[in-house]
Amino acid sequence: MATKDTVGSARCARLQALFATQTYNLNQAYMLMSASLTPLWGRLSDVIGRKICLHFSIFVFLLGSALCGAAQSFVWLAVCRGLQGAGAGGTIQMVLIVIADIVPLEERGKFAGYLGATWGVSSVIGPLVGGVLSDHGQPQSRPIDPP
Fold first, then answer.
1. Would you state the torsion angle of the CA atoms of residues 4, 21, 63, 38, taken in this order, to the nearest 10 degrees?
2. How far apart are CA 22 and CA 142, in angstroms?
3. Per-residue confidence band for 1, with pLDDT thresholds at 50, 70 and 90
4. Which of 74, 89, 95 is nearest to 31 (CA)?
5. How many Cα neighbours within 13 Å face the side chain of 71?
6. How far apart are the C-alpha atoms of 5 and 132, rounded to whole Å?
7. In the chain, what is the straight-line distance between the N-terminal and C-terminal CA atoms, in Å?
8. 67 exposed, middle or buried (CB, 10 Å; 0-12, 13-18, 19+)?
9. CB 29 within 8 Å of CB 82
């Protein structure tokens, strides 16, 4: 569950220097696409299957991440960030759907706690690691968010 703005928030200071007041559009594009496509991922998983949707959402997220790293303009970065959000939203929804399908009702609370703990730890550690990599990383390296 380390998809929500872990490396992205660490790069905000660097992006702020480059693009002044437009950095909020990056998070808006991500969250808007993630939230608005949630019902679509649920319906697609009912129609074409959970495994295909999970793999496709991971692919969309990774494609969006790679395109974010290759973006040459702010508008293109915002569009790619939206694509990344669409894949991240699908990945989160598909993980929750698969857990609901395979885990018995009595055990779902425990697994929901595991997912929440994973998100909590990654949202603290992810920006710290991303900031270190942004400040001290190789100048030719481009960060890609892990799913």
1. 50
2. 21
3. very low
4. 89
5. 23
6. 15
7. 7
8. middle
9. yes
Token couple for 7: 């490396």
Question: Residue 81 is encoded by which pair of tokens?
Answer: 């960030």
Beta strands in the chain (DSSP E): none
Q: Do 89 and 60 form a contact (C-beta atoms < 8 A)?
A: no
Listed in sequence order, the residues at least 6 apart from 143 whose beta carbon sits closer than 8 Å to its beta carbon are: 7, 11, 69, 130, 133, 134, 137
Residue type, 30: Y
60's tokens: 């969309």
**Placement of tokens 């998983």 in the chain:** 45
Quick check: 85 pLDDT over 90? Answer: yes
Instruction: Write the pLDDT tens digit of every residue in 4-31.
Output: 455 555 555 555 565 556 666 778 888 9
For residue 2, pLDDT beyond 60? no
